[in-house]
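Try this one yourself first.
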């Protein structure tokens, strides 16, 4: 509680800095009209809003519908200032865990960048794609010509929910800038009705998964708690949790310590975390839990129509 009180004065500082940064970004805009529309999948929350999982699902859905799709993600690791963007292969340490996960799950071209506007313009000029999808970028004012999809929780976000006191980049007022919004991700148990305007997350377990055993969870996600709660709701017996911050990797020394603490332990993690763990999979046997995003078929069809037709009109405003 005392720690939270200490953070209160930093919330106005963050908000002012956020606004100044947006003004600076607007002035640095190249103001060029890209040749291909882009869907920005963003959120009010800094992490854990389901953006990457939604990007994967939408990229797969739109590909099935005949669109040639490319994906943009944030360049977290190995960033080179002289390069605007680069195509992702399998090296997460030179790009990001999210970018490699998207590439692995979709098989599409994925690019990492720290200047989405410039990357959008240059990649669109190649005329390879019908649509680009950006994982995050809703807070970038240079992307006003993009079609923005905003993911948010059912709760209203106020000023005191902002960073660093809370987990949010901006308040619920930011929803007004979006073209469409979806509430979620809501946990899916298989019996709920899929409602329009909402999206759901469903954990997928390997065939023969031992629900009767005690499991140790390794996680470094945007929202570790939701992942753990979903496991428990699905009947997983969680014996222990080893959690880290989003995008942080696991070290060999940590793996050795976990083996000492849980000599008979059974370990599990998400697909995203396993991207960062592949180099250590010989050190520790881990079961990977996949996640699927579920939308209403009507929502998918409306979004597809908006992107195929409405987004072109937005580009030419």
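Now uncover the answer:
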């Amino acid at each position: 509680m005392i720690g939270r009180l200490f953070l209160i004065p930093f919330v106005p500082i963050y908000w002012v800095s956020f606004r100044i940064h947006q003004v600076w970004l607007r002035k640095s805009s190249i103001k060029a009209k890209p040749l291909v529309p882009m869907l920005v999948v963003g959120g009010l929350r800094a992490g854990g809003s389901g953006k990457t999982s939604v990007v994967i699902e939408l990229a797969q859905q739109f590909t099935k519908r005949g669109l040639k799709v490319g994906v943009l993600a944030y360049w977290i690791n190995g960033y080179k200032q002289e390069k605007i963007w680069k195509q992702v292969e399998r090296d997460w340490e030179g790009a990001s865990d999210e970018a490699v996960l998207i590439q692995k799950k979709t098989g599409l071209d994925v690019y990492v960048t720290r200047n989405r506007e410039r990357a959008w313009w240059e990649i669109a000029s190649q005329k390879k794609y019908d649509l680009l999808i950006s994982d995050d970028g809703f807070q970038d004012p240079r992307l006003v010509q993009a079609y923005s999809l905003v993911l948010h929780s059912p709760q209203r976000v106020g000023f005191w929910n902002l960073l660093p006191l809370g987990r949010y980049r901006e308040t619920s007022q930011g929803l007004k800038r979006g073209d469409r919004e979806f509430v979620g991700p809501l946990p899916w148990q298989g019996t709920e009705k899929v409602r329009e305007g909402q999206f759901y997350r469903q954990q997928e377990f390997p065939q023969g998964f031992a629900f009767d055993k005690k499991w140790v969870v390794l996680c470094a996600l945007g929202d570790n708690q939701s992942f753990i709660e979903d496991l428990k709701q699905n009947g997983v017996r969680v014996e222990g949790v080893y959690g880290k911050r989003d995008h942080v990797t696991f070290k060999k020394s940590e793996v050795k310590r976990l083996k000492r603490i849980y000599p008979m332990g059974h370990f599990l993690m998400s697909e995203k975390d396993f991207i960062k763990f592949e180099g250590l999979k010989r050190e520790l046997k881990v079961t990977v839990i996949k996640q699927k995003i579920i939308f209403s078929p009507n929502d998918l069809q409306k979004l597809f129509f908006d992107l195929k037709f409405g987004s072109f009109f937005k580009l030419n405003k």
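Discussion: Residues 193 and 296 are 9 Å apart (CA to CA). The radius of gyration is 20 Å.
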